[in-house]
Amino acid sequence: MREVPDLIACEECDAVYRRLTLGRSEVAFCRRCGAELERDRRAQRKHVLPLAIAGLCMYLIAHVFPILELELRSGLFSHATLIGSVRSLRGEGMLFVALLVLATTILFPLIQLLALIYLLTFPIRFRRFGHPTTFNLSGRLIQVLRPWVMVEVFLLGVIVAFVKLTSMATVLPGIALWAFGALAFLLTAVFSFDPRCLYISRYGYKKQGK
Amino acid sequence: MPANRTVQPASQSPGSGVPVKTAAKLGMVSCPHCATLWEDVKAHDRCRRCGAGLHLRKPDSLRRTWALVIAAYIMYVPANILPVMITVPFLGKEQQDTIMSGIIYFWNSGSWGLALIVFTASFLVPLFKLAVLTQLLIAVQDHSKRHLLLRAKLYRVVAVIGRWSMLDVFVVTLMTGLIQIKGFATVHPGEGIAAFAAVVVLTMLASISFDPRLMWDVTEHEPGRSHESRRGG
């Protein structure tokens, strides 16, 4: 098994191309099917770690404080956190749905953020704890989980629920709602970053072959 | 390797459907994770750069995708018939909402924008995904060479929009979490939401397990040179 260093294959149609030297923020596309081959991400690179740490802070706020608060006519208050909502789903016998919501909005975003922060700090910055197995697993985890992190979909769900509830009672947005908004924004910014380029920096791979 | 020199450079403007050499034809396998190209790959080899399993095509792609799509079709029926949310007010009759009745409620109460968003995410997107995936599977099995570029674009759209169908699941989760107030009203999730969540997960898994490269493989099947480089994985 030998590596072919200066070629790249399209992920969607298998067409092979010579790698281009990409300028700042340039993107290479497949000539045949139009899929993206490679994108230059040097510009984003240095912002990723601070954004990921900011994301982690927003994550904590989003899960500790209530998302929506209800003020009922009789002077009753009710508020819901995400974890509380998942627990009441489980209490209603909806284990599958509860697990799905738990995974897509609570577990996976956390795993993804922690894996990314680990990748960007220990192996690359401090040059320790970078055992290839953990390094590779973290990198793959980030990519595999990508379609299953649904914070921005959840945010739209909060807005829909908000409008639904306005007919029943006075609804107040909680602190966590703003934190979720920030988290969705930060996750999008952070994971427009491609963990692939970490392999390049780790293995000292020269981008355009010889 | 001489073949390397004859390969075209990658284009910086999107596809025009021109014929090209494929990795399979050149006897190379691309790592699904880090996109490194390898030659002389044997079965069960792993990428030496990132450790991902190397396969010429996603293993059992058509069979797995069919199974997931058929399962999603089956779940689609209860997802739309059974109630997704049951509201029990302190006084008065309990109200059962299906996916559709929730949309109609928004429409009638004047939130047309929201009705449109929910209609798209909960009704159009799952149906569109199932229709497109079925069409893609049939076209691959028929070795169809027609509309390849269009099908490539449809696949990309399906892969991106799938997750937005989870919208209704999150709405029900929040309503259940928020309205558990004795003496006012309680909201319970209905069986429909579990079926609906299953449709979303199954169609997402189906679009992940489908290998779009299979669509383009038919262009390789010229007489005399078919299957010449089917190795690896």
Automatic annotation (TrEMBL), chain A:
Keywords for this protein: Membrane, Transmembrane, Transmembrane helix
Keyword ATP-binding: no
Upper lineage: Bacteria, Pseudomonadati, Pseudomonadota, Betaproteobacteria, Nitrosomonadales
Name of protein: Paraquat-inducible protein A
UniProt keyword Transmembrane helix present: yes
One Pfam entry name: PqiA
Transmembrane segments: 48-68, 94-120, 141-163, 175-193
InterPro entries noted in UniProt: PqiA-like
Automatic annotation (TrEMBL), chain B:
GO cellular component, as recorded: plasma membrane
Subcellular location: Cell inner membrane
Segments crossing the lipid bilayer: 66-92, 112-140, 161-181, 193-210
Record carries keyword Transmembrane helix: yes
Origin superkingdom: Bacteria
InterPro entries per UniProt: PqiA-like (IPR007498), PqiA-PqiB_transport (IPR051800)
Keywords (A to Z) from UniProt: Cell inner membrane, Cell membrane, Membrane, Transmembrane, Transmembrane helix
Matching PANTHER family: INTERMEMBRANE TRANSPORT PROTEIN PQIA, INTERMEMBRANE TRANSPORT PROTEIN PQIB-RELATED
Protein name: Paraquat-inducible protein A
Taxonomic source organism: Nitrosospira multiformis
